[in-house]
Description:
By secondary structure, the chain is an alpha/beta fold. It has one domain (4-133): Rossmann fold (3-Layer(aba) Sandwich), CATH 3.40.50. It has helices at residues 4-8, 18-30, 41-47, 67-72, 74-78, 92-100, 113-126; strands at residues 10-14, 34-38, 54-59, 83-87, 105-108. It has a five-stranded parallel β-sheet, with helices on both faces. The longest helix has 14 residues, at 113-126.
Amino acid sequence: MSDHSTRLGTVFIVDDDEAVRDSLAILLHVHGLEVEAFNSAAAFQRGYRARKNACLVLDHHMPNVTGLDFLRSSEGQALTLPVILVTAHDDKDIRAQAAGAGVFVFLAKPVDSGALLTAVADAIASGPIDRDQRQYGTREP
Length: 141
């Protein structure tokens, strides 16, 4: 018997705000996705294990390292996960930097549940990516 959540995919969530992390995890889980949540980029690095059919929902504004700084790091560059960047501080500069970092979708907080579910489905369907080859930039669902 196959597990429904495994068929749909895995979403890794990295957000320092516990309430946001938990809310996103519940939303995604009830829609049949496996979820692994982390409170920092460092915790994600320690706990991440590659999965097929997966994506990363990454907060931008976190203590110690921003989401974009993590993506620019050697560890972030090695990821083949499509990334959905979320931030409460939406501005043109961050959007431009996100596009330059190869972010798949940019979402402003508070995140609309429908937009997030669409972005996750599209990201998982896109499959693994090569950050060096990414030229499609950031889009909004």
